Amino acid sequence: MATVIAPGIDAGTTDIKQAAERDAAGYTSVKKALDSAFRKPDLVKGAGYVTGQKPLEDYTEIIDRLGSAQDSMARATYEGFHNGPEVKKSIAPEFQNMLQAAFTGGPNGAAPWMSQVTEAIQSLGADLGKNFTLTSPLSTGFVPFNLLAPSRLIYPFYSPMRNKLQRTQGQGTALRTKLVVGIQGSKTGGATGNPKNMFISELSGASIASPGGTWPNQLPPSGAQNAADLTLNYSFQGISEALTWPAQFASQGFEDLSGLANLILLQEAMLAEEYQILGSTATAIGAPSAAPTLTARTAGSGETALSGVTTNVYVRITATNFTGETVSSAVANTAVSAGQVVDVHIKGQPLAALAFNIYVGTGTTDPGVSGSHLMASGVGGVSYTLMGALPTATATPPTADTGTASANGYEGMFSVTSGWAAQNSVYPSGFLGGYVNKSVGDTLNLNVLQNALVGLWDGGTTNTGYAGSSWTSAGGFRVNPAELIAEGSDVGNLSDSIVLNGSGNNYLLTVDQNQVSGVTGGVAVSQVVNPVTRDIVKVLVHPWLPQGNALLNSYSLSQPWSNVANVWEVNNVQDYLSISWPVIDMSFRYSIALYGTLVCFAPQYNAVLGGLQRNDGNGTSTPWS
């Protein structure tokens, strides 16, 4: 066994010199490795000159100082990147001045060493061009997307009438009911409702057994009644949504797309029903039956004269509702001179129309439908002033009805109350509002409202439209409506009218100094006192109602023993039924369906107003609109 006497040397080795050389060579290679591994320590050896006259040689102290230096460099780099302004403020002003001088001390505004740095950077060339930026090497950048989940639903969603009306259970294919519309003395139901004289003479005293006796004995006179049948067919309604498999799969982790589709589907169904309740009809509403009347006059203050006119102006009118537009009326024309405007007065408006579009052309002769262009849309009033440049590139009147009716639809509130449903034999003859005025020609003001309320109370009135058409209610009497439904600007006009009407009254408003900051200005009317019945009429601003229209609705009857729980109700055999269809391809399909109708058991206890002006222009110095 060999005995070790030194590293790499054993007793069995005869050549001790060779062993020593090997040890020396190993020491040299280890020293080189240490020198390579500890090049960074060389950078801190100079710290010895701060406290002495030679560099540090103690590797323990060198390593300690190296760790501290690395930590300081990391902190300084982090602070310089994330908190640059604060770092800059910490630099001594003298050093900043020296640094600035170093950058500007050489020729061309830079120190000589800076030009060497610039050359070195330029020599790197394409390598520096590979730096990461917001747009390089990827135009969209390596950045996160701050995508918020779930989706924000920012569309308006209101269905006040659908939410308000009672929903009752139907059966079969149609709703059928018997309506007693008048009895003797009710003043409803035509002549049947006239008062009856029931005075009679004393009953005969002749005995039945006596010669000449009669049976039955003398009786008082008989009363009279008037009745009608109401049959309303049920309508099948439905709406669907679908999404593909990839769309559903890819949305995982962000949103339940299937749930979103079903939510939107329900909202769409409720919105569709809201429009149907208000304006649906099964019969196309028809174009205005008469040409408008035109009046050319000098432009007043604040009006802009027509331009682009060559001799004459030709005007056509179409009627619109929620779902479509009619063909145009007959054409009207008038000569127009420089500096003039033209007032348009709409005539022969359809009963179920909600607004009008005005088409204008010019020339020495009628340019026809193809030469008439849309100048004003959604006109709610019966008078409108044409001003400014004539259109040349807008739409022309449709040559066929674009969908004002659905053959499968039921009759909505405007159709029933205006008498359109009765005219088309859906409701019995005479079943329309107790007050109908489709050509008000004024803003919705206190006087217009009071005329309607008085008309409903008096009942049986004939309401004449702008073109001379008339509608007579057969049964509305002593009506006390619960709610006024109108568009926002029309309700605003009513509020203004009520405030102005009360301006002559004596009011004293006292505001203490400590109450100044709590005073709120403005007036909004949420309910009106019926001047006839003294009851409250609520005011509802409907979000979808076109300007120019208003309804006065009753939801219950004030008289006892009527057997009418609801004046208006939605009677459905099948209410909302949500269907998730079987998967037959790579998509998911959903539907909502219902089967029923809107019914009004007493249209006479409601009223409709149309042709409400947006402003109170007089057509002489201020424009109609």
**Structural class category:** alpha+beta
SS element count, helices: 15
Radius of gyration: 45 Å
Instruction: Let me know the number of strands.
Output: 23
**Are there runs of 5+ residues with pLDDT below 50, and where?**
1-14, 33-38, 464-472
Give the strand order of the largest sheet, numbering strands 1, 2, ... along the chain: 14-23-20-17-19-18
Question: Helical proportion?
Answer: 25-40%
CATH first level of the domain at 170-185 and 224-283 and 407-501 and 523-619? Alpha Beta
What is the annotated CATH architecture of the domain at 170-185 and 224-283 and 407-501 and 523-619? Alpha-Beta Complex
| Mean pLDDT across residues | 84
Q: Looking at the structure, what is the overall shape?
A: elongated
CATH topology of the domain at 170-185 and 224-283 and 407-501 and 523-619: phage-related protein like fold
**What is the percentage of strand-forming residues?**
15-25%
First-last Cα distance: 123 Å
Largest sheet report? 6 strands, mixed
Condensed summary:
26% of the residues lie in helices and 22% in strands. It is built from 15 helices and 23 strands.
